[in-house]
Amino acid sequence: MNDKSSQSDAPDEPESGQQGGPKGWWKRLTTGLRRSSAAIGTAIADLVTKRRLDADTIEELEDALIRADLGVAMASRIAAAVGHERYDRAVTAEEVKAILAAEIERVLAPVARPLTVDPARPFVLLVVGVNGSGKTTTIGKLAAKFRAQGLKVVLAAGDTFRAAAIDQLKIWGARAGATIVAREPGADAAALVFEALVTARDEGSDLLIIDTAGRLHNKAVLMQELEKIVRVIRKIDPAAPHAVLLVLDATVGQNALAQVSEFSKTAGVTGLVMTKLDGTARGGILVAVAEKFGLPIHFIGVGESPDDLEPFAARDFARAIAGLEK
Predict the structure, then answer these.
(1) What domain count does the chain have?
(2) Which band of pLDDT confidence, cut at 50, 70 and 90, is reported for residue 46?
């Protein structure tokens, strides 16, 4: 049985961005990245303030950056930049942090791109990711943001394996004022997605956001079902999905690289969201992902509230993770 929650049922909720604007976001970003920036900052301070820069110091710095999940290539690049024409010199932690931020920004700037909903009606956004990545919560936050921009949004509860995911999406959708298309747990996900796209078209909606089950990237059967969903979507609109968003959990560290690789093969990932950056000292994984894959990073999340998910800005992230002021 279908469950379509109307927009009139939505409770009052503050719109994204009302809590302090850009300055408020900078504070939330730096607070959220505190564990990552503290780990990197402590390593830098321990290395560069106790002795002059030499080959051993540079190697230790590189090792510290690898431990922060920045990736071998990025850590090597930063270490080389720090050592350039600085051997046998005393350098300050702030000097190293500035170099770190500049190198990180250089990698991130090309991938910091907004998620643009074009005039195609409806714009179909397929959201994928493994269990626990924050996928359903991210969809709810995105729905709130796009509704605040005046777009008419439909949410498809395509994670039919978990009743909790269906209920969670209903709550987020009601808060955002979005239409929900859901079925009972265990229903065929591809059939539900088909219905949701028809509903979105019939209602003249601007955006359809599709939740999917938390696929384990190494489970072939689940990936095949995801492929089936994509085939069903294309029966109605050959150009859809217009965007495929992969939600990554920053706390998984290097495993995020494998997830990007596998989901890109299966679902044709077009952009990324990284969540839970506030729950880890391994925030550097975002940099490693960016350098290896070059996929657009649309949003990052540093908390639970709708305002804790914001469009990704390369310079802000680079300076925050380096522990520098804006």
Answers:
(1) 1
(2) confident
Q: Which two tokens stand for residue 57?
A: 């110091």
Cα 50 to chain centroid, rounded: 37
Is the Cβ–Cβ distance between 289 and 253 less than 8 Å?
no
Question: pTM (2 decimals)?
Answer: 0.89
Domain containing 9 — which CATH number? 3.40.50.300
Expressed as residue numbers, the domain containing 272 is 1-326
Percent over 70 (pLDDT), the chain: 91
Give the tokens for residue 222: 């689940």
Q: Which of 84-88, 108-112, 175-179, 228-232 comes out lowest in average pLDDT?
A: 84-88
Task: Check the CA dihedral 238-157-133-305 and report its sign.
Answer: positive
Work out whether strand 207-210 and strand 243-249 pair parallel, antiparallel, or are unpaired: unpaired
pLDDT at 116 over 60: yes
- CA–CA distance, 139 with 97 (Å, rounded to integer): 34
Q: Which residue has the tokens 């690898």?
A: 66
pLDDT for the residue 219:
75
In which residue are the tokens 């503290």 written? 38
